[in-house]
């Protein structure tokens, strides 16, 4: 069982304090949209991010936003729901999925109001892509850089809010500010967060603390995620005692660029929706050997087909051939992919692209409802760091930006209403944060060696796992654990990565079946009799909760209790 130690910092003679209504940690679509909506609603906000506002998984999202809108002729929310449930491999929460899918239209409308431009057809209608697992064209996009388009526009409007001197409420943007720990009151309510910026420590005390920190891809050697995706929010929540769920479900994207010395650049699922095909080294189109939907099967199926093809033939990669799309369409729809590949010496209009799976999206995380409520009063989680049950065991393509955006709008409505009835920061007894500053050492990999940790995770808990490999992984993770007092961001990230890695390894060991993104070579079938449940972790204890009984401890309590 992993150690859940509070992270310590070097004693500092001065501790700065900020009081606000809401503090948001993270700056992907979830954090940025929430911050903007709260500011527009008259709420005081602090948004903190460990790098710049533009450094997030959102910025690297190519495909788009899956949503059923008025212009989607022939589509329906019910069809989107069925596709989502099918992709979730038995663990998708239907109630949650309905709520998120129902909010898709409002999300798209709001993004367009804020200036986000989606691609349109020649007749002016919004253009829709088809992606794997979808029965209809329902993915709105901006070329092959949809996330970048959304992130840049949301950053621009948020910065405009921060510069508006006419506002009575304030938005404070803290970049290069690393979150150390959740501040909790004596009665176990979250009431702030400790941030580190250089040698300065800031305690941001707030009525609501929102985690919007994104995913965990960087704990694996091969990932499509940016360097910031180190599982920080999930580690913060774990140390605070919040409920975590589905930690075994890591989605490996089937088609990440493969070339020695180059990062695992994502080749969007949209290219397969436009007609790109997968072939082995002989040119054989193998995806249909594994599923009737071929390249357009769900991600877990396609990733497994690639893995099995590589393993059986002893090859390091397969190939994704874009040429069936047509040169003009490739140039028009996928300019970012073409340019990135060209820099690596690949001309995708003339030759197939070497690809193999890479860690991409985390279905697990902090247990939360569709409003972001967690098991701890005052603590919320939205976006990829949250686990609502929407994705089940395997996320449907382009449902991630949908979920993050809808959760942000949902939570904004709630917090704006709360702020109007109980304005201003209400002091809570929080001697805990002073204790956190003087707390014990944190567990980190030996010498802060992140690369060794990443190699261990990719080999032991990668796309396909087994009991022997997981046992060896857990022993190796325990062996590389050391304890130290550090105020260094790199050590802090390494500590978060180590904690999340241990939790994932244990959850993988506990799910003795294959389901969705969780593939066990020693338990190759799904077992609905014994495993149709969600594995949870809370305050050091593991539990299995049947889907129909899964709930949050605070579900019947006020969203923000008396402050």
Describe what you observe in this structure.
The chain has 563 residues and is of the alpha/beta class. It folds into 3 domains: 16-62 and 145-249 and 363-434, FAD/NAD(P)-binding domain (3-Layer(bba) Sandwich); 252-359, Flavocytochrome C3, Chain A, domain 1; 441-541, Methane Monooxygenase Hydroxylase, Chain G, domain 1, CATH 1.20.58.100. It contains 16 helices and 23 strands. It has helices spanning 29-40, 77-87, 94-102, 104-113, 146-163, 232-240, 270-273, 299-313, 327-333, 335-343, 399-421, 432-437, 450-460, 467-479, 489-510, 528-531, and strands at residues 16-25, 45-48, 65-66, 128-129, 139-140, 171-174, 178-184, 190-197, 200-211, 244-245, 250-257, 277-279, 318-321, 353-362, 365-367, 379-381, 386-387, 442-445, 464-465, 481-484, 519-520, 533-538, 541-546. Strands 1, 2, 6, 7, 8, 9 and 16 form a 7-stranded mixed beta sheet that branches. Strands 17-15-10-22-23 form a 5-stranded mixed beta sheet, with helices on one face. A hairpin with a 5-residue loop joins strand 7 (178-184) and strand 8 (190-197). The chain is globular, with a radius of gyration of 22 Å. The protein starts with 15 loop residues before the first strand and ends in a 17-residue tail after the last strand.
């Amino acid at each position: 069982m992993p150690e859940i130690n509070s992270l310590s910092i070097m004693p500092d003679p001065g501790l700065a304090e900020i009081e606000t209504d809401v503090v948001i940690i993270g700056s992907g679509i979830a954090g940025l949209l929430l911050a903007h909506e709260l500011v527009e609603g008259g709420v005081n906000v602090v948004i903190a991010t460990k790098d710049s506002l533009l450094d997030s998984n959102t910025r690297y999202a190519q495909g788009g936003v899956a949503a059923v809108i008025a212009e989607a002729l022939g589509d329906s929310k019910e069809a989107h729901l069925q596709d989502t449930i099918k992709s979730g491999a038995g663990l998708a929460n239907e109630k949650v999925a309905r709520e998120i899918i129902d909010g898709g239209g409002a999300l798209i409308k709001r993004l367009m109001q804020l200036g986000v431009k989606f691609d349109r057809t020649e007749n002016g209608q919004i253009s829709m892509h088809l992606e794997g697992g979808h029965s209809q064209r329902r993915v709105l996009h901006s070329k092959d850089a949809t996330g970048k388009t959304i992130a840049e526009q949301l950053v621009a409007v948020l910065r405009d809010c921060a510069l508006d001197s006419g506002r009575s409420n304030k938005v404070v943007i803290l970049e290069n500010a690393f979150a150390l720990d959740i501040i909790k009151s004596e009665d176990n309510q979250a009431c702030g967060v400790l941030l580190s910026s250089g040698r300065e420590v800031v305690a941001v005390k707030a009525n609501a603390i929102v985690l919007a920190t994104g995913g965990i891809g960087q704990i694996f050697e091969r990932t499509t995620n940016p360097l910031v995706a180190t599982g920080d929010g999930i580690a913060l929540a774990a140390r605070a005692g919040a409920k975590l769920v589905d930690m075994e479900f890591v989605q490996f994207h089937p088609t990440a660029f493969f070339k020695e010395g180059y990062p695992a650049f994502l080749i969007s699922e949209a290219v397969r929706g436009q007609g790109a095909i997968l072939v082995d080294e002989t040119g054989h189109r193998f995806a249909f050997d594994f599923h009737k939907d071929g390249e357009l099967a769900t991600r877990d199926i396609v990733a497994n087909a690639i893995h099995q093809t590589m393993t059986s033939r002893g090859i390091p990669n397969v190939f994704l051939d874009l040429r069936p799309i047509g040169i003009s369409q490739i140039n028009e729809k996928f300019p970012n992919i073409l340019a990135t590949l060209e820099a690596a010496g690949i001309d995708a209009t003339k030759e197939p692209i070497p690809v193999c799976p890479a860690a991409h999206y985390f279905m697990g995380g902090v247990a939360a409802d569709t409003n972001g409520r967690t098991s701890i009063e005052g603590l919320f989680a939205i976006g990829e760091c949250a686990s609502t049950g929407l994705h089940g065991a395997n996320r449907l393509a382009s449902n991630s930006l949908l979920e993050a955006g809808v959760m942000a709008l949902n939570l904004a409505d709630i917090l704006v209403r709360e702020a109007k009835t109980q304005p201003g920061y209400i002091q809570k007894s929080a001697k805990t944060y002073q204790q956190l500053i003087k707390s014990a050492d944190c567990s980190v990999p030996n010498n802060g060696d992140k690369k060794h940790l990443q190699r261990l995770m990719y080999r032991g808990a990668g796309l396909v796992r087994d009991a022997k490999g997981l046992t060896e992984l857990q022993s190796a993770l325990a062996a590389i654990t050391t304890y130290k007092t550090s105020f260094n961001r790199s050590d802090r990230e390494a500590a978060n990565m180590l904690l999340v890695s241990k939790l994932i390894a244990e959850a993988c060991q506990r799910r003795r079946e294959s389901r969705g993104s969780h593939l066990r070579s020693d338990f190759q079938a799904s077992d609905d009799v014994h495993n149709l449940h969600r594995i949870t972790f809370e305050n050091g204890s593991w539990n299995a909760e049947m889907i129909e009984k899964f709930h949050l401890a605070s579900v019947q309590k006020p969203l923000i209790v008396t402050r």
